[in-house]
Amino acid sequence: MNSDRQLPRLPYDEPDSDPATRAFTRLEGEMAMMRRAVEHLATEKSEIDIPDYSKTLGEMANRLVSIERQPAMQMTPEDFEARMTAAAERARRDDEVLIVAAKRDRGEAIRDLRAIIGTANSIYEQKTASLVVRRRRLACRVPPVVGASGLCRAHPTDKLAPARTHRRAHRS
Hints:
This protein is mainly α. It has helices spanning about 20-45, 55-70, 70-75, 75-140, 145-150, 165-170. The chain has six helices and no strands.
């Protein structure tokens, strides 16, 4: 509703007062409201029970003193760095010992594997040479005794022929 418009006056309404009277009336209402609010705050504040923290604060102070006395709290950053560096050097020395041992073990394993491979190759070569000799004997269609007597000889440069066949080939 528009505040400029006035409602018609009723016979039992009070007459309009001047603006100053209205302002003081409004101010009086606001002051009464403020007085009640302040009285309420004062009552609430008196009802608040503030605990005694002196015991708790004393315990906290004792804990802080005990923490300050710990050796770690006495260390400077330079001391801490020196200790960390020393620990890292010890760890590297230990690792170096383990690395050297692992390299030695690996070298031994490689030598063992080469020996096993060499033995396997020798066995394979012997079996292959034996097979070549048997095939030559079969190819000559001569009984083994005749083949051994020299009728069907291996060539002296044949690496797969057994050593005794080489000797026989050089004698003739």
